[in-house]
Q: What sequence folds into this?
């Protein structure tokens, strides 16, 4: 029962990085992490008994294959996912402390644990926004090449990425569409990260950055409104509201393109149920089937215009104005 939280505490304290940096003894690790030595020693011994660290002699610790995953620079970004002081670690804490509340009430567990909705918490704590954006950019970094390759984006004149974070996906898509303009829309504290990215990619002169809520009117005239991993954050009513904002902003003949994990059966197994619970707990969101997405789109005045399944569990769903 204690292993998941103990690993998260070690990740938060950067124990693997300190060991890799030459701190092997309990005393030195306590000094570097600012932890109480006796309590830290008990944590390390517990984790050594589970092969997360090695205890080479009493009170002297080393890395194992498992704890190498916790190095800050490991490509999996595992340490960042588990860091209890980062955005995704707080979602995990909300899951532990708030799932019962969420199941009993249907309301987000995050608010019951932290006293404030997830997005308001991020807005009040810039370091949490930074941590969330960095995680999302890393996810986008893996997903973006698939999305960029899956559609003839060059046929569009203007592509707006709505809730596009710091712009990693839009950068990849614009890379396949040299004549297209890009519009990045997200909350003000997030979207500003896009400027630097686009300048570095040489896209500064064909991109526009708009710090605005997607529940408000969106920049008009886009040929494509891209919504990547947005709808699963929200319940049906709010999802329809975002889709309606996208639909009304489209140029004639324009399309909404949704990128989402889709609930589907794979060899008899239902996929994405863990993410579904995660979405429930953090913001009352949900994962959906294609039919459920299509029903939301219809309420926003959109009709299906095709689907593409990506090699990952994500799909592209295309909708046009009905
Ligand atoms: C799950 S992330 C997805 C980011 C990006 N589209 C991707 O695929 O990685 C959700 C995004 O929605 C943004 N967001 C949340 N509430 C918003 C609002 N009311 N208006 C605009 N963006 C919002 C967040 O800042 C975040 O960038």
A:
């Amino acid at each position: 029962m204690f292993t998941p939280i103990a690993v998260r505490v070690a990740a938060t304290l950067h124990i693997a990085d300190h060991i890799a940096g030459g701190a092997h003894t309990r005393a030195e690790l306590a000094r570097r992490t600012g932890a109480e030595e006796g309590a830290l020693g008990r944590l390390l011994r517990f984790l050594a008994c589970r092969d997360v660290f090695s205890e080479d002699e009493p009170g002297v610790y080393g890395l194992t294959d498992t704890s190498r995953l916790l190095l800050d620079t490991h490509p999996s970004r595992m340490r960042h996912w588990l860091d209890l002081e980062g955005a995704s670690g707080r979602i995990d804490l909300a899951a532990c402390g708030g799932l019962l509340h969420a199941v009993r009430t249907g309301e987000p567990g995050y608010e019951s644990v932290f006293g404030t909705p997830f997005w308001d918490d991020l807005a009040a704590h810039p370091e949490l926004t930074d941590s969330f954006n960095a995680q999302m950019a890393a996810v986008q970094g893996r997903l973006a090449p698939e999305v960029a390759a899956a559609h003839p984006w060059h046929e569009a004149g203007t592509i707006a990425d709505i809730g596009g974070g710091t712009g990693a996906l839009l950068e990849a898509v614009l890379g396949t569409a040299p004549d297209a303009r890009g519009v990045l829309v997200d909350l003000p504290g997030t979207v500003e990260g896009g400027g630097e990215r686009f300048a570095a990619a040489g896209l500064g002169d064909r991109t526009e950055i708009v710090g605005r809520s997607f529940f408000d009117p969106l920049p008009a005239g886009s040929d494509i409104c891209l919504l990547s991993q947005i709808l699963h954050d929200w319940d049906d009513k709010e999802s329809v509201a975002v889709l309606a904002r996208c639909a009304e902003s489209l140029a004639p003949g324009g399309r909404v393109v949704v990128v989402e994990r889709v609930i589907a059966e794979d060899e008899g197994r239902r996929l994405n149920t863990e993410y579904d619970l995660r979405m429930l707990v953090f913001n009352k969101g949900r994962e959906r089937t294609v039919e459920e997405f299509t029903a939301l789109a219809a309420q926003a005045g959109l009709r299906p215009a095709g689907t593409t399944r990506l090699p990952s569990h994500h799909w592209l769903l295309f909708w046009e104005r009905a």
Remarks:
- The pocket of S-adenosylmethionine is lined by residues 119, 136, 139-140, 163-165, 169, 186-187, 190, 213-215, 228-230, 233 (CB under 6 Å).
